Structures are given as structure tokens and as C-alpha cells.
Amino acid sequence: MKLTVKSTKEMLQVLDETQEAFFKDKKQSYPYTEWEQKRTQIKEHLNKLPQYIHQAVEVINLEEQKRDRPPKLDLEKKVNLFIMVRFLNKSNRLAEQSLHYFQPLFGVDVNYKYIERLYSDLEVKLALHNVFVLLLKKMKTMLVEI
Fold this sequence. Notes:
Layout lengths: L4 H25 L2 H16 L1 H10 L16 H14 L3 H10 L1 H4 L5 H7 L3 H24 L1
Helix pairs in contact: 3-4, 3-8, 4-8, 5-7
């Protein structure tokens, strides 16, 4: 088959019509503007995550234990560290290495065992629960507004 300008134009026209027919349903079924608005709201809430963590830790009444040595990190930093390690989605040893590289930024110098102990720390669990409740309340108000 010999391609001519006319046959090429006809083929391109058929391709354009096929593409329009295929994407016609796709464009109507996916609301891009709504998705972008929700994405923006989620980004705003993620930017406020340290504030939510602070609020969650603030309501916990901590009793001072004067006999033990002082903790390496306060509860708020522990919760931030825990969430950051979970966002990294790496093992505790790899997370320790990553944190070592960013130590000047975060000011956290811990080993992998310290990270492992955060999983069983009752105060961290309670603070994470409070953060989760705060986020649920915010999400509920977002859904009511929509």
C-alpha cells in the first residue's frame, strides 16, 4: 500500500475520531477539578501535621519520673520521628542511616533500637491516637463542607 498525503490525512482523521470517542467517556467520568481541590486540602492538612502533633501531645498529662535519666527526645519529637520513619517506609536500620544524613536538619541522632522502642512506647501510642482523632475531626468537617 502506497501512502499518499490524502491517505495519511484520512488515517490521521480516523485516529483523531477514535481517540475522541475513547476519551469522551473518560473526560466525563473523572472530575479533575474536584480531585485537585481535595488534593490541595490534603496538602494543607499535611502541612499542619506538626501543629496537630503538638495539640495531641499537649493534652497528655505526663508524670515526671525523676529517678530515671532524662529522655533523649521529648514526646513531640518522638511522635514526629515515628511518623517520619513510617513515611520513609524503610526498615529501622535504613531509617537510621537516612536520619543520620539529615541530622543537621532535624537535630535527631538515634540508633535503630531507639526507633524500634517507639513502636512499643505507650506515650507515643497515645499521642498517635490523639493525632488520629484530631485528623478524623478535621476530615469530618471537610466532608460536611463538601
